[in-house]
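Training component of the fellowship. As part of building independent skills, the fellow (R.M.) carried out the full modelling exercise for a liganded target. The chosen ligand was adenosine monophosphate. The inputs are recorded below so that the supervisory panel can assess the work.
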Amino acid sequence: MKILVIGSGGREHALCWALRQNLGDDLSLLLCAPGSAGIAEVARCVPLGATDVSALADFAAAEKISLTIVGSEAPLAAGLADEFERRGLVVAGPRRVAAQLESSKAFAKEFMRRHNIPTARFHVADSALEARKMLHRGEFGPADAPVVVKADGLAAGKGVVVARTRAEGERAIEELMGGSLVAGGAARRVVIEEALEGREASLLLWTDGRDYILMPAARDHKRVGENDTGPNTGGMGAITAPDVLDEESKARVVREIVEPTLEGARADGLEFRGVLFIGLMLTADGPRALEYNVRFGDPEAQAILVRLRSNLADIFEAVAHGRLDGVRAKWSNDASACVVLAARGYPERPEAGARIEGLEGIAEQMPGVRIFHAGTTRAKDGGWLTAGGRVLGVTTTGATLETALRQCYDAVGRVRWDGMHYRRDIGQFANRFAEAAGGGAPRGIQE
Ligand code: AMP
Ligand code: GLY
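Fellow's submitted model of the complex:
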């Protein structure tokens, strides 16, 4: 089997690493476009842009690629799966029409409403005037209640504002629709939404449109600062652990959200094939779907894939061919963690070019630790330099979240560069859950 992975971040490094586990040492069986200096350790990198759909299809045809796996949403929203299928190439990702579950929040919310999937109350607005009017409707609670304003289109995590007051909501509408927060007309329409309270979880699954395989539920840490402070980022760390979504809640999410979503997609003729990522808010009134993504999360992928004990290529191949029925995924241990190390200035203005020290020896001396590269490049002397906002994702598994986190932070303590920063509280919310629930041994790390 010859596999092509599309993308260049930490998530794609984790995908390539996981695929490599069953491909032996022959680098020519695993290609990555465009890849990165870190990915080049496990795959052959091909200098083609992730959204250059026709060049990628030409390449896949010429190289006789047997399976293409897409890391991020942009190529799918650009119609990569449609083009590959048109040319008879096998691809494990949804077509453009189904990718709208991520690329248009209005599409996703209307889909949820149509199929009775529990989600926050919402309105879609096509103008700032309409949006402002909706903001003041009673159904979003009293005038001093928070409200959420979301850009309809893809906005790389910058398109959602949780406004504490209606005045902040008005400002968010002006900023989003005026183009100062997100680019490219992503906020020509906005969704105004009731603000939900609860804890968040990400539930990811593979589906061929009919059958599905759930992955361990994950928890992202989106804010740059400890205790969820500061601006939003692509994600500063992720964990998987039983506490993220207990068995009872998971059964309810499957019954009320996962299965109605897959049935709804079938009923609407979306033929969803690939990875579906459901962002959840677990509220006092039950689980609510916050959003869909049509691909792995980053850094959720890193935390999830280190626990996979099945052949990832076999799963994706079954997804692409509509043969997921009877396929199972085996997972190790109970928990995992990924701590993202970021460059000075991330997320606003990350600095590149700092020399990374301390990476040598970690793989040999800490065999459970994987370091996935999100933004690095090789120095002339073979060392590593920073080359992006999120630079590395230090990832481990453990029998408990506490052991996984301890090992992760031990490894983090060996790495340094000028301006490196990271959150020291990844997974800490698990302690707060246990306390809020009135007992149970804290599972997070104690520092
Ligand atoms: P989304 O891209 O829709 O997942 O939104 C990004 C983040 O905004 C989520 O992970 C939540 O933290 C927050 N968020 C989105 N929608 C809501 C909501 N209705 N209520 C409260 N927080 C929300
Ligand atoms: N970590 C969130 C995402 O990938 O969308």
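The panel noted the following from the submitted structure. The first strand starts at residue 3 and ends at 7. The first helix runs from residue 10 to 20.
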